[in-house]
Amino acid sequence: MRRPLLATLFASLFSLPAQADGPADLVTILTSDEPQTQLMSMVLTMQSLKQGANTYTLLCGPGGDLALKDAPASATAPQEPKGMTPQGLMQMIMAEGGMVEVCAIYLPNKGVGPDALLDGITPAKPAPMAARLLGDNTRIMSF
Prior knowledge:
Number of strands: 5
Helix content: 25-40%
Radius of gyration: 19 Å
Strand order of the largest sheet: 4-3-2-1-5
Largest sheet: 5 strands, parallel
Distance between the termini: 51 Å
Strand content: 15-25%
Order of helices and strands: HEHEHHEHEHE
Structural class: alpha/beta
C-alpha cells in the first residue's frame, strides 16, 4: 500500500536530525610535534574562523609547546610556501577571536607555571572542554 505524499513528507520532517542554530563550533586538538602538521592545523583552523566558525584550539603534549613564550624553534621557524610559522598563525587566530588553551595537565607535566604561556592562553578546564566537544554544533579536528 502506498502512503499519500503529504503523509510521507510530514513523517520525513520529523525524522530529520536536529540542526543547531548559529555558526559551527570547531575544536582543533593538536598533539603533534611535527611542524608541518602543526602549521596545517592552524591553516585549517584559520580558514574555518574566516568562514564563520567559532574556533577553539586545545594544545596537548608536544602540541602544547606552541603556547610557550619560549617555544621550540620548530614552532617559530618559517615554512613554505608563505613563510608562516605554527605559533605565528596561532597568534593570528587568537587576534581574530579564536580561543586557544593548553590541556589541563600540560603545565604540571612540563614543570612550568601559567606565566610560561603566551598572553591569552590558559589551561583548559576539563568540564567546559568536554561540554564543548559534545556540543550539537561541534566539529572536531585532531592532529
